[in-house]
Automatic annotation (TrEMBL):
Residues 1-87 form the STAS domain. This is Anti-anti-sigma factor Rsfb. InterPro entries: STAS_dom, STAS_dom_sf. The gene is rsfB. It comes from Mycolicibacterium tokaiense.
Length: 96
């Protein structure tokens, strides 16, 4: 509840910078409550038609995310290198 608004603010600022993709790396996060998940889903809904957005999550939060079907809503990767490779591929295809 306390950090979800910070996450939301950073995501809005990032998207306003017109990036070619957004990768949200949660590998250092030990706990993600429903409010944080809602922020991620809302962000994905806002930008997925304009740019690739994915989440990197492994460890303690990946299981709950998968249990609620988060990985079916948006791309989710266990490792940062996998996510970066995919968004680079998506970006190249968009401009081909």
């Amino acid at each position: 509840m306390l950090t979800a608004p910070v996450l939301e603010r950073h995501l809005v600022e990032t998207v306003e910078g017109h990036p070619s993709a957004v990768v949200i790396d949660l590998t250092g996060v030990d706990f993600l409550a429903s409010h944080g998940m809602s922020v991620l889903i809302a962000s994905y809904d806002r930008v997925s038609d304009r740019l690739p957005l994915c989440v990197v999550a492994d460890g303690p939060i990946s299981r709950p995310l998968k249990l609620v079907g988060f990985d079916e809503l948006m791309p989710m990767y266990a490792r940062l290198d996998q996510a970066l490779q995919q968004v680079q591929s998506d970006t190249r295809q968009a401009f081909a």
